Amino acid sequence: MNPYMLQSSSEQEDEDPSDCRTSGQLNSPGYKRLITIHAGKPKGALKDALQPAAEKVRRLSLSEQELEKAATTNGTDVVRFTQKNILRVYPKGTRITSSNYKPMVGWMHGAQMIAFNMQGYGKLLWLMHGMFKANGGCGYVKKPDLLMKKGINSEVFDPKKKLLVQKRLKVKVYLGDGWRLDFSHTHFDAYSPPDFYTKIYIVGAAADSTRKKTRIIEDNWSPVWNEEFTFPLTLPELALLRIEVREYDMSEKDDFGGQTCLPVSELRQGIRSVHLHDKKGEKLKNVKLLMGFELL
Questions:
Q1: Is position 135 within any domain?
Q2: How far is residue 245's CA from residue 255's CA, in Å, rounded to a whole number?
Q3: Taking the model in full, what pTM does it have?
Q4: Is residue 128 located within the same domain as residue 209?
Q5: Is there a single domain that holds both residue 95 and residue 185?
Q6: Are 78 and 109 in contact (CB under 8 A)?
Q7: Would strands 86-90 and 113-116 be described as parallel, antiparallel, or unpaired?
Q8: Are 111 and 58 found together in one domain?
């Protein structure tokens, strides 16, 4: 099964496919067999539940803890299962504050449905927004070919295997502007202009995940950094570039100044104007960064 699919964690399990009580609905057993994928939860040993069935497609649901366990002990079994079947991952029931888990674990193992709590906000939800900016933001992202391939001896991609660097991403942060139009003049500092800096994150394979940050530009609504960073990538197909601007505060927590998350595979090379978003993912009207991207 090739796509990733974006889905809210409020989705309920599939209703009985044999229930055709809706007025005017066609009751065709052949048609139902064609479109129905039965859902289920693991019964017995997790390794057994991940074994693909010979002649049918299944949809298996795992909690985030079950996925983490499977990724630790049976990672390649998960990848092999998702090549022909659908895997849905959902948040653990104790997340009563609508927090979320790391979606990259599921994506690295080919899970097509990463159920999220969409009613809150935070850095993990920003990653979800970033992943699904790809493909025109339609909500469908094709899985990388490496998660669908099999080797000569039917071996599949091993998320734990150490890989060679495939690409190098150069990111240059030139300058930023627009805060004085979207924020009050006392929002960041009551008596002086803000002290902005930019943080750059790569989120993806463990070997690729890292962060850098620019220096702090003091007392300036339109900071100019002109700083360049290079990120070696072993799995550029699954890497996300997360950008966050903060305002330095000596005595309290640094203030939030905007963020965005972008799929590395769809970065347009060259000098680009990058719009920033608020904590809920809504685009700020005027705040943007001037940045340069180069994938070598």
A1: yes
A2: 9
A3: 0.85
A4: no
A5: no
A6: yes
A7: parallel
A8: yes
pLDDT at residue number 32: 60
Mean pLDDT, the chain, integer: 87
| Strand ranges across the sheet with 59-63 | 39-40, 59-63, 86-90, 113-116, 3-8, 140-142
What are the distances in angstroms from CA 35 to CA 24, 31, 218?
18, 7, 59
- What are the phi and psi torsion angles at 180 (to 5°)? -65, -20
Give the residues across from 172 on adjacent strands: 228, 292
Distance (Å, rounded) from C-alpha 14 to C-alpha 22?
Answer: 15
For the record, the structure tokens of 217 come out as 């530009």
pLDDT tens digits for range 231-262: 999 999 999 999 999 999 988 899 999 999 99
Domain that holds residue 275: 167-295
**Beta strands 39-40 and 59-63, pairing class:** parallel
Strands (E), 220-282: 224-233, 240-247, 255-263, 270-277
Q: What is the pLDDT of residues 52-91, one digit of tens each?
A: 776 778 889 999 999 999 999 999 999 999 999 999 999 9
